[in-house]
């Protein structure tokens, strides 16, 4: 079994793979204050419930792959692998790790591990050219060339922090449920805010993706667009993007 750990600013997602098949996954909050011992207890509690793994910590795990955008958590996870999974091969995606995808930016060390992994997955699953739209704390757009190279991208404020900012900075506004309103023209404050977030972000994604497509390929229709991250879970209630989008 391969244990994969993706640490984002808000959530940490864990996946358990049997070959190429994902047999289990979990989502927990990211807490940079957790120590290595606390993380080990958390992992043991989650994986101890799975019938394909043994009762002992690490039993049944043949490899670990970690991607983290939070340095303090990465440090503690490194300690977890050393102390509790010492005999298990572990790969931590960080600057200098060879992934097979060339990073064509001014300073490759500045590119977040999550964005590199998005590019690697896009090349492996779809090939290039491709654009990965990742809805997390930030909304990121990562471009993969026709040759399978990471060509750069776009970083925009995420959906959740935009909703929170409206509630905090708007004197008469509050945090709202993120849901599709009855119409674009809201008939009350909540619907107006929902329309601004839902349709505003859909328009933002459409606009950025279309511009990136034109820079990536002579024929924009040759570019595969992939949506991932925490927030596509509400996209079924949102207006569809006019771009042709594959979800992963």
How would you describe this protein?
It contains five helices and ten strands; from the N terminus they run E-E-E-H-E-H-E-H-E-E-E-H-H-E-E. It is α/β, with parallel strands linked by helices and 248 residues long. It has a five-stranded mixed β-sheet with strand order 3-2-1-4-5, with helices on both faces. It has a five-stranded mixed β-sheet with strand order 8-7-6-9-10, with helices on both faces. Helix 1 crosses helix 2. It starts with a strand and ends with a strand. Residues 232-248 have low confidence and may be disordered.
Q: What order do the helices and strands follow?
A: EEEHEHEHEEEHHEE
Q: Which range does the strand content fall in? A: 25-35%
Largest sheet: 5 strands, mixed
- Name the overall outline: globular
Report the oligomer: single chain
Number of strands: 10
Helix content: 25-40%
Number of helical elements: 5
Strand arrangement across the biggest beta sheet: 3-2-1-4-5
Q: In whole angstroms, how far apart are the ends? A: 21 Å
What would you call the structural class? alpha/beta
Radius of gyration: 20 Å
Low-confidence stretches: 232-248
Q: Whole-number average pLDDT? A: 83
What labels would you give this structure?
248 residues, disordered C terminus, 5-stranded mixed sheet
What is the secondary structure topology, with strand pairs?
Elements: E1 2-7, E2 11-18, E3 21-29, H1 36-47, E4 63-68, H2 71-84, E5 90-93, H3 113-125, E6 130-135, E7 138-144, E8 150-157, H4 159-169, H5 189-216, E9 224-229, E10 245-247
Parallel strand pairs: 1-4, 4-5, 6-9, 9-10
Antiparallel strand pairs: 1-2, 2-3, 6-7, 7-8
Helix pairs in contact: 1-2
